[in-house]
Write a structure and sequence with these properties.
The chain is α+β, with helices and mostly antiparallel strands and 372 residues long. It has helices spanning 2-115, 119-123, 128-197, 202-218, 222-231, and strands at residues 262-266, 281-285, 290-292, 297-304, 310-315, 320-327, 329-330, 337-338, 343-346, 353-360, 363-365. Helix 1 (2-115) runs antiparallel to helix 3.
Length: 372
């Protein structure tokens, strides 16, 4: 009987212990689940904050870049006015010098004679008729010489006005150029802030450089580079943000912008210096111009490639890519998302030619339908 009671008690004790352990385990599991939920909520919140901060920086960059382009356009207009005024000043100087040279001796002699015409008869007493004719001639010419003097005086006034306008324009050009330089500094700082937020540190840059070298080695031409850069996943987290909600689909036509303010000096299909047909367009930019993203997308290549200088390849939706080469400084890193109008690089003081291609599924297409 005792043994039976003891066994029963033992079984009950084990059952109670099991229930207690189960309860503890369940409570612990619930706590873990709750902690995981809280951690996930915190991570999501941090990710949203990061996305918001990066997006704000991008919008600030776009705003300042737009301002830079406005300033560049203003500088171009001022330079045109300076050129016209300088030509006008030169022409006015030439006219005045020519007129002065022709009239100087004549004016001096005529003025001397017209001041003392009575001495002519004393000099030429036997030729009173000639003296009278000279007097009449002087009387006729003198008012016209005086008019000419007034004209020259007016020309001098106009020249001085032109010189003052030219000086004012040069001052305005200097001040506007200073504004542009300050904008360049602001853009550089914002890019640095963006990279700090995205933790593009020395280790990340080293990884990105290794990836870039591998892509360069694997690709024999730009076609292969576009394909391999898009297919190869990056191990370096140059962009810790998710795909921005504001990223748009590549348009059918007429919605993308030129990367720089400038003239098209070579069109798509036009013969190059080597006799080949151009697969993109060549733009003439200002020195030190900021280069902007033509449309929203993801940077899949950022670095030098063969003899084409520093290059950026931006992947858009539906198999579209933008290839831009000829940059001096690269702001955008491989793996980063960029928005239309965001600064992605900068031209140099020596090279002002920027090459731009648009590709669809790897094939070159005429950008004329898209560029506005």
């Amino acid at each position: 009987m005792l043994n039976h009671i003891t066994k029963t008690h033992i079984i009950k004790i084990y059952a109670l212990l099991f229930l207690a352990l189960f309860s503890i385990s369940s409570a612990s599991a619930v706590d873990n689940v709750e902690k995981l939920k809280q951690k996930k909520t915190t991570i999501n919140k941090q990710q949203r904050q990061l996305n918001d901060e990066v997006n704000k920086l991008q919008l600030d960059l776009i705003s300042i870049a737009n301002r830079s382009q406005e300033i560049q356009a203003k500088i171009t207009r001022i330079e045109e006015r300076v050129g016209l005024l300088a030509s006008q000043e030169l022409q006015q100087r030439k006219t005045m010098l020519g007129d002065n040279q022709k009239l100087g001796d004549t004016l001096s002699a005529m003025l001397q004679i017209s001041d003392k015409p009575d001495k002519l008869f004393l000099i030429y007493p036997t030729d009173g008729l000639a003296a009278a004719r000279s007097h009449l001639l002087i009387s006729y010419i003198t008012p016209r010489l005086q008019n000419r003097i007034r004209d020259i005086s007016s020309e001098i006034t106009e020249l001085m006005e032109t010189q003052q306008k030219l000086q004012n324009e040069k001052i305005l050009l200097f001040e506007t150029s200073e504004d542009l330089a300050e904008n360049h500094i602001r853009i550089t700082r914002l890019v640095e802030n963006k990279n700090r937020l995205l933790k593009v540190n020395k280790a990340t840059l080293t990884k990105l450089d290794t990836e870039t070298k591998a892509l360069r080695k694997a690709a024999r031409n730009v076609e292969e580079l576009v394909k391999k850069a898009s297919e190869t996943k990056s191990t370096a987290k140059a962009d810790r943000t998710e795909k921005p909600r504001t990223i748009r689909k590549f348009p059918i036509k007429g919605k993308i912008t030129l990367p720089v303010n400038g003239d098209i000096i070579r069109n798509f299909g036009q013969k190059t210096a080597f006799g080949l047909s151009s697969r993109g367009i060549m733009l003439k930019a200002r020195v030190n111009s900021e280069v902007l993203a033509s449309f929203d997308g993801k940077v899949v290549f950022s670095g030098a490639f063969q003899n084409q200088g520093r290059m950026l390849i931006i992947e858009h939706s539906d198999g579209f890519h933008t290839v831009i080469s000829g940059l001096h400084t690269l702001y955008a890193k491989r793996g980063q998302w960029v928005l239309q109008g965001e600064p992605i690089g900068k031209m140099s003081e020596q090279n002002t030619e920027l090459y731009v291609e648009i590709r669809k599924n790897g094939k070159h297409i005429n950008p004329k339908s898209w560029l506005s």
